[in-house]
Write a structure and sequence with these properties.
The complex is a heterodimer. Chain A is mainly α. Chain A folds into two domains: about 140 residues, no CATH class; about 130 residues, no CATH class. Helix content of chain A is about 80%, strand content about 0%. Chain A starts with 5 loop residues before the first helix and ends with a helix. By secondary structure, chain B is α+β, with helices and mostly antiparallel strands. Chain B folds into two domains: about 30 residues; about 80 residues, Immunoglobulin-like (Sandwich). Chain B is about 20% helix and about 55% strand. Chain B is built from one helix and six strands, in the order αββββββ. Chain B has a three-stranded antiparallel sheet, with no helix packed on it. In chain B, strands 4-3-6 form a three-stranded antiparallel sheet, with no helix packed on it. The model of chain B has no long low-confidence stretch (mean pLDDT about 95). The chains are: A mainly alpha, B alpha+beta. Chains A and B meet through helix 8, helix 9, helix 10 and helix 11 of A and helix 1 and strand 5 of B.
Chain lengths: ~270, ~120
C-alpha cells in the first residue's frame, strides 16, 4: 500500500467494498447461508478458507483492484480483499439481525467466514467489474493454458457458490430424471461453447493458427465443463448436500450445479 | 503436451457422467420409493427416551416429506406414538432421525416404519 497518497488507498478500499457487496448480495440474503454458518463442519469451513486464499492471490494477479507487479503484492491484496469481505459480511449480517447478542462466538464466526468468501472474491474483482480499466491486461493476454484453466475455475467457483447453498438445487436435482440430467449436460455444453467460441475470436486472446471448432470444444468447453463439475462437487460436499446421498442423486445434483458453474467458467474468460 | 492430457481427462469425466446417466435412464430402477427404517439405538434424553433411526430408500424414485412413525405397544395395547419427518430421501440414499418417547421403548414392543411420502 506504499504507492500513491492516502486518498488513493481509501478509493481502492471503497471500490473493493462495493465489489464485495455486489458479489455477495444474493448470498447475503439467502437464509441457507445463515444456517450453513451454524452447522457446517468446522474442518470443512477451515479447508474452504485455506482453498480460497490461493484463488484470491490468483485473481489478484489476473484482475486485481490495484495494479500489482509482484507476488508479494498479490498476496497482500488477497489478504486485504479477505479482510474487506469479512468486514462487509459482519456489517450486513449485523444490520439484518442475523448476528445478534447472545449468539455463540462460534456461530458468529461461521456465519461471517462463509459469506466472506464470495465477498472477498468480489472485492478482488472490483476494479474490473466497476469499470476501471487499470487491470492487468498484459497478464491476462499472456495467460497461457494453465492461466486459462485457473480463470475458468475461479468463474465456476463464483457461480457455483451462488447457487449451491440453496435447497432449491437439491430439489431440482430430485425432480429430474436421468434424461433431464442428460439434456441439461447437452444444453450446458452448448451454451458454454457458444460463449467460448465467441470469446475465442473476439481478439481478446490470440487464437492459435488452425484453431478449429472441435479443438476449441475439447480444450476449453469440455475442460471448462469438467472444471465446473469438479468445483460443484467440492462446493456441494462442503455444503453437506451430498451426505448419505446415493450415486445417481449425487451425479444429478452435480449436473444441476455444473450448469451455472460451467457457464461461469466459460464467461470468466470473456469477463476477466 | 499436458494441454492435451487435460483435455483428455476432462473429456473422460464428462463422458463418464453421460454414460452413467444413459445407463440409469435406460436400465435404471424406476420403481416407487421403498423406505426401509432401521433402528440404530435407544438412549435416555432428559425426561424422554430417544430412539435413533436410519431411513433408507431402496426404491428408484426420490421420496419427499417422508413421515416416520414409531408405535409403542405393551401387551398388545398401543401406549404411545411418535413421528418425525424427513425432507428428502433420494434413491439409494439414507438419512437419520430420532423419535422421542416418554415410556421406555426398551420395556415395550416398538415398531418403526414410514407412513407416507410425496414425490418432490
Amino acid at each position: 500500500m506504499q504507492d500513491g497518497a492516502g486518498s488513493e488507498f481509501w478509493q481502492d478500499m471503497a471500490r473493493a467494498f462495493g465489489g464485495a457487496l455486489i458479489f455477495a448480495f444474493p448470498l447475503l440474503m439467502t437464509m441457507e447461508m445463515w444456517w450453513l454458518g451454524l452447522y457446517l463442519a468446522r474442518y470443512k469451513l477451515a479447508l474452504f478458507v485455506i482453498a480460497l486464499l490461493p484463488v484470491l492471490v490468483g485473481l489478484s494477479y489476473y484482475a486485481g483492484f490495484r495494479h500489482t507487479f509482484d507476488f508479494k503484492e498479490d498476496v497482500i491484496d488477497a489478504l486485504v480483499a479477505f479482510v474487506v469481505g469479512v468486514a462487509m459480511a459482519a456489517l450486513f449480517l449485523t444490520l439484518f439481525g442475523v448476528i445478534k447478542t447472545g449468539m455463540s462466538p462460534d456461530a458468529i464466526v461461521g456465519n461471517v467466514i462463509l459469506l466472506a468468501a464470495p465477498a472477498s472474491m468480489g472485492a478482488i474483482l472490483a476494479s474490473k467489474q466497476l469499470g476501471q480499466l487499470q487491470n492487468n491486461a498484459r497478464a491476462l493476454q499472456q495467460a497461457r493454458y494453465a492461466g486459462e484453466l485457473f480463470i475458468m475455475m475461479a468463474g465456476a467457483l463464483l457461480l457455483a457458490f451462488n447457487v449451491a447453498p440453496t435447497e432449491a438445487i437439491i430439489l431440482i436435482a430430485y425432480k429430474m430424471t436421468a434424461w433431464h440430467a442428460l439434456a441439461l449436460i447437452v444444453v450446458t455444453l452448448t451454451v458454454m461453447h457458444v460463449i467460448v467460441y465467441t470469446a475465442g475470436f473476439r481478439g481478446q486472446r490470440q487464437t492459435p493458427e488452425g484453431t478449429t471448432f472441435w479443438r476449441m470444444f475439447r480444450h476449453f468447453t469440455v475442460v471448462g465443463y469438467a472444471i465446473g463439475g469438479l468445483v460443484s462437487l467440492y462446493v456441494l460436499w462442503t455444503f453437506e448436500h451430498l451426505s448419505g446421498c446415493g450415486l445417481l442423486a449425487a451425479v444429478q445434483t452435480v449436473v444441476v450445479t455444473a450448469f451455472p458453474a460451467g457457464v461461469g467458467a466459460a464467461v470468466s474468460r470473456l469477463v476477466l | 503436451m499436458w494441454e492435451r492430457l487435460v483435455a483428455l481427462v476432462g473429456s473422460l469425466l464428462v463422458l463418464a457422467s453421460v454414460v452413467y446417466l444413459l445407463y440409469q435412464g435406460i436400465w435404471g430402477d424406476h420403481s416407487p420409493p421403498d423406505i426401509v427404517i432401521e433402528q440404530i439405538d435407544v438412549m435416555d434424553s432428559g425426561a424422554a427416551h430417544l430412539v435413533r433411526f436410519r431411513a433408507r430408500n431402496q426404491g428408484g424414485k426420490t421420496a419427499a416429506e417422508v413421515i416416520v412413525r414409531g408405535v409403542l405397544e405393551r401387551d398388545g395395547e398401543q401406549i404411545e406414538t411418535a413421528e418425525a419427518s424427513i425432507d428428502y430421501i433420494p434413491p439409494g440414499s439414507e438419512q437419520q432421525g430420532g423419535l422421542y418417547f416418554s415410556h421406555d421403548p426398551r420395556q415395550a414392543q416398538l415398531t418403526i416404519g414410514a407412513s407416507g411420502y410425496r414425490l418432490p
